[in-house]
Amino acid sequence: MKTTTTYKLLILMMIFSSCTKEDDSITLLDVVSNQVINLHAPQQGGSGGGPPTPISGEFTKFDFSTGSITISDTDWDIGFRGTTIIVNGGVSLGTTDEPSRTGDAAGYVASGTLSSVSQVDTTLLSQDSSNGYAIASGSGNGWYTYSGPPTFLITPTPGKILVFRTADGKYAKVEILSYYKDSPPTPDYRFSQGRYYTFNYIYQPNEGVTSF
Amino acid sequence: MSLIKHYIKISSRLFLITFILSSYLSSAQVVNDSISTKSLEEVIVTGTKTKRQLSSLPLPAKLISKNEIDEINSSRLKDVLDEQTGIIIVPDFGGGEGIQIQGLDSEYILILIDGLPLIGRQSGTLDLNRIAIGNIEQIEVINGSSSSLYGSEALGGVVNIISSEIKDSLPLNIDYKLASYNTNDINFSTGLITKDGKKFNIFVNSYSTDGYDLDKTDNLNTVDPYNNYTGFIKYSFSKNNFSFFSSARIFDEKQSFKVNENLFGDNNTSEWSSNSKLGLKITDNFNIESDIYFTSYNAEEDISSGGIEEEESYFDQFLIKSEVRGIVDFGIQNKFILGLGYLDESLSRNNFYKNNITQSSVNIFAQFEGFTDKNSNYIIGARYDNYNNYKSQISPRIAFRTKIFKDVSLKSSIGKGFKAPDFRQLFFNFTNSTVGYSVVGHNVVIDVISKLTENNQIANLIVPLNEFNQKLKPETSLSLNLGLNYNPSNQLKIEINLFRNDINDLIDYRVIANKINGQNLFSYFNLNKVYTQGFESTFNYRPNEKLNFIIGYQYLEAKDKDIVTSINNGEVFARKSSNSPSFVLQPKDYFGLYNRSKHTFNLKIFLEAKNDLKFNLRSKYRSKYGLFDSNGNDFLDNYDDLVKGYIDLDIAASKKINRSITINFGIDNLLDYTDPSNISNLPGRILYGRFNLKL
Within a domain: residue A209? Predict the structure, then answer.
């Protein structure tokens, strides 16, 4: 996995407001804008040759505050396995190898572009539960569309922005760009390797701030 | 079997009544032979179910003559239709080739042989490669809805193949065509006319091909070798006021194919049909006609690996149809027709919830064809279809034609069309063995879900089950046509027809539940509203008997109304490629429905030179279109990978050696255009020779 990080300047308005307010002792941290390339999210079982078997395998966990994957049992925000995305909040759906939730993470799927989703609607946040995940699984329900025959491709649905509350109560938004290794512009199911996520995200490291 | 017998009994009843009545009347009455009016005027029956002059029919219609079929050396029905303005042949992923008229798919177009429907739409498409055309008198095409006469499926149009009748006794027609890819097409026909006027003819066709391979990289053929046989017999006689016609058709096709290195398959399709028609002239202006029709379509596919069977699928459909029509003539050309019909259908196939599904329906229709004066005429008609499985339908139609100037006439028609849900949409019960998703028919969702819930297979339900207590509605359309014909002389004919079809309650599938394996369970709903609109125009210039020049063009827009609304509201997103960020899609970037080209253009030149030599050149252009969404928003926009526009150019020459022998040579797809991944039904350049013997 490769991570490239660029730090953005504080939003002008924030500087402006912090200057005019009396207690400008609180300095806000910079909003983080980042791209994650080829996050590998393998799974066992499920689809792919022969009758479907129960899905298993460790989730690949990601921590927004460090901007990298982690093997920690507690310090993670979201996890990936195949097309499934979980949050570190709520309860497990009970699939094999699914980690128990230790944090207060939550999420929802917003419609828009990465820049147009600029405010978290906290009323929409939900956590994983025994009935289903905060980011619904299955084609067309959450973040992707499965084309079926003849192209058999998993394509991130345009205009689907994943909004998360992290395990420790901060906010982030994610736009998945590709499910295939090295994010080819025109994947081909015969050659392209799936279960490799490339996504853009914006992380708001300041506690309680719901805008990006 | 007893069920089938029962159906035969019921539907035979209508037929028998007419038969007894007609035999009685024909023996009791002696009236002069009906005067046979011989006219050069082209006659069409499909538009009204009565014989009509094509020029006065107020509906958009096309007539393809035996002559044209012969000159282009076509072997199958799709070859002929592909060259007509406004008709597009579309390959199906299942391997078949369907037809698109006015932007409506094969599922919405009725294909008839001598007025009776072909069955065997395994995945909706009716494969036009099944139909041999060596015994055809003419092909009639009516565009726009004809549900007012034909009921279900006749939304986009009706194609009626009229089989030929023999004119002299003991004719012999032998035709052999050899084409690239070892394609052999053999036609044989002969017949007999007895002294008392009974006509009997037989037609046999054998077609075999080695298939072809467009993509050499994958070790698989694009089309695997196959062969098929068609047999057709026809018997007819008329005496006094009584006429009888009976025909039977059989078709058998076999194909062996390769799925991958280890998996091999065999495909076998067999089909038969039998059609009997009685006509009875009660008085000079009152006729009764009656048909009874049986048809069966069986397809079987076995996939095996090293001699061990892996998968077997089957599709067995059976249909009985009978109809009685009374036709009354008023004045010179006014006609009233009243019809009563009965239809019974059964299907058994794999991946169905029930082993055998049956459905019967009754219908009644009435139509009046009238002339207000010499230059204006109209049709008013309606049909009522009563179904046991879903909502009954009333389909009215009004059409009007008037000569506004000496050489300009105006045609206009408006009609309702419908398509009843097919059995798959009601009873399917399918789980994909590799991916694990399921598709379940609307009528069996409650049963299937409750079983899956018992087995803890359902993670959560997205659509409440009580929604499935409501029956699936037929898809309906409103079809509008406005045409202008300019016919200043015998040499020049210009036609233009504007059309619009608004289709409601289009049936599509959507997710109704998530399964615990993370996959979805889909079912069918009345979801979409779409429209198709555009115009079709033909320019035909025939300066003399030896030259015929035709240009045709169709402009088409076909869109989903809900998508148009969402795009206008700025709620729809797209991506430039499948690895780039999304942005808001602009209304102008919505491409429309799958598989629709905005522009189609054709040019045909037929030339007769000296010494019985004939040449022709035909070309067709189809502008770009999309087969699937490539950027994930589930519909086509200008950023998707579209199929490039292309030209298919064919040339042919024929030489009449003597009175009986003609030889032909030709090249199809002269430009050798291919697109392996998108256009599977366009092989490379094809050379052929054809020998015809007529005695």
Answer: no
